[in-house]
Amino acid sequence: MTERILIKHLAAREDGPVTVSGWVDTVRDQKKVQFIVLHDESGALQLVNPAVREVDPDDAASAGRHEITETISGLSQGSFITVTGELKHDERVKLGGIEVKIGTLEVVSHAVPESPIADDSSIDKRLDWRFIDLRRPEQNLIFRVQTTFEHALRTYWIEHDFIEIHTPKLMASASESRAELFEVGYFDDTAYLAQSPQFFKQMAQPAGFGKVFEIGPAFRADPSFTSRHATEFTSIDTEVSWISSHEDVMRLHEELMVAGIRAIKEKHGEEIEQRFGVTIEVPTTPFPRIPLAEAKQIVAERGYVVPRHDDDMDPEGERQIAAYVKEKYGHDFVFLTDYASSIRPFYHMRNADDQGITNSYDLVYHGVEISTGAQREHRIDVLTTQAKEKGLDPEELGFYLDFFRYGVPPHGGFGMGLARVLMLMLGLNSIREVTYLFRGPNRLLP
Ligand code: AMO
Predict the structure, then answer these.
(1) Which end of the chain is more exposed for a tag (fewer CB within 10 A), N or C?
(2) Is 172 known to sit in a ligand binding site?
(3) Which of 2.40.50.140, 2.20.28.160, 3.20.20.140, 2.40.30.110 would CATH assign to domain 7-109?
(4) 222 lines ligand 1 (CB under 6 A)
(5) Ligand 1 site, residue 415, Cβ cutoff 6 A
(6) Contacts (Cβ under 8 Å, ≥6 apart) of 272
(7) Ligand 1 proximity of 359 Cβ (cutoff 6 Å)
(8) If you ran DSSP here, which 8-state letter would residue 4 be given?
(9) Whose Cα sits closest to atom 1 in ligand 1?
(10) 14 in a known ligand binding site
(11) Distance 81 CA to ligand 1 centre (A)
(12) 3-class state of residue 177 by DSSP
């Protein structure tokens, strides 16, 4: 393999021979000199070549130089090349104050000259050609930010004795709701794609794992075309034993968000500011907490009535309550707590003093729900009653209910959509922008 140096590391190197590889962004083919802007995953670099337009029979080197000149003249945007040359620091070079004078140039892969997309192409068109779209530095940054976020969460979890689990995505039953369920043929039977690792992360509690986490895919057969829904998304899940209430889960959740956002600010804050015009704010703790009923009142006083009483908060309600929290507390996050039992799954524990509400919450970030968390009902009799009340068949849920028959500690956790967090943090308007390959009702390719 060629000893290639990432472009971002060149500035710190002394002048001298280097090898760089990447794709061609632009070619400026002037009579006497040729310039290439070369990109790799870490940045952009100016390459320069003194043009030799004709072979000089008295100069042995001129044939080679002429060949390179011709190659550059025919070089199409997007082609992948490897160049060995002389690095030179020169303040006059706008692009990073360095350039590489080409010694040898190998075209490793020619690109078809006309790119099928441009910077101003529609998001759908760009997704059709996602591999080209992802070459843009903004896109590259998104996935570096994602890497840092996941790494920071993992570091937190590992430092706090959590165990990483990988739960199956093929299931025999629904875990969230019968709606939004993908069915797949499973030999002579039917299987369902996991909507959440819910049941299996809970299973780690009677298994004696104490604290677990998973970052993995989740599937929802949701036919909507909103900016926040996908049919497949990456879910960040955690579940912990020995909690007293959902308050303990919220505290854990806050700490994880602070760890993740702090790491992003430190590593990418400046570049995010420059590319997305967004200042990353590390949130203060505790995040504001508002019971859902109160949040609806606050929103109503601001002039927006959430349709249908006793229902969930709708997207406009989330925006309004977030605006209120920002004005009142200067905070980008808010926990909406005490959701009605009627709109929560059977496995949420209900409030000991008021069966009408659950020990649960949603976390709203920049006006959009990013997560649901709760204390779970671990008492088998209560759990079975709640399942029946929701019209679920305890027979079908038998494997799950068994988890609670042989001893289980009180526990709770949350699930959070990775793409929503990234979209909101970077001020982007759709999870399509921050998902490596988006899956929606009308998108299974590429
Ligand atoms: P919930 O269904 O609220 O809760 O999902 C948790 C979080 O997952 C993300 N999410 C989605 N992201 C993109 N597209 C979708 N279609 C989609 N659906 C959900 C959201 C949401 O807040 N088992 C519970 C979690 C728990 O209690 O631990 C659950 O799945 O960010």
Answers:
(1) N
(2) no
(3) 2.40.50.140
(4) yes
(5) yes
(6) 141, 145, 264, 278, 280, 426
(7) no
(8) -
(9) 372
(10) no
(11) 43
(12) coil
Closest residue by Cα to atom 29, ligand 1, is 415
**Any atom of ligand 1 within 6 Å of the Cβ of 198:** yes
Rounded CA separation 339/345 (Å): 11
Query: How long is the chain?
Result: 446
The domains of the chain are located at 7-109, 130-434
Radius of gyration of the chain (CA): 27
What distance in angstroms lies between residue 182's CA and the mean position of ligand 1's atoms? 15
- Tokens describing residue 291: 């019971």
Find tokens 């799950």 and name the residue: 400
- Which atom of ligand 1 is least distant from the CA of 197? 23
Cα–Cα dist 243/251, whole Å: 11
Ligand 1 within 6 A of CB of 85: no
Domain 130-434 fold: BirA Bifunctional Protein; domain 2 (3.30.930)
The amino acid occupying position 226 is: T
Question: Any binding-site annotation on 417?
Answer: yes
Q: Is 376 annotated as a binding residue?
A: yes
Per-residue pLDDT of the chain (446 residues; tens, 9 = 90+): 558 999 999 999 999 999 999 999 999 999 999 999 999 999 999 999 999 999 999 988 899 999 999 999 999 999 999 999 999 999 999 999 999 999 999 999 999 999 999 989 999 999 999 999 999 999 999 999 999 999 999 999 999 999 999 999 999 988 777 789 999 999 999 999 999 999 999 999 999 999 999 999 999 999 999 999 999 999 999 999 999 999 999 999 999 999 999 999 999 999 999 999 999 999 999 999 999 999 999 999 999 988 876 578 999 999 999 999 999 999 999 999 999 999 999 999 999 999 999 999 999 999 999 999 999 999 999 999 999 999 888 888 899 999 999 999 999 999 999 999 999 999 999 999 999 999 999 999 99
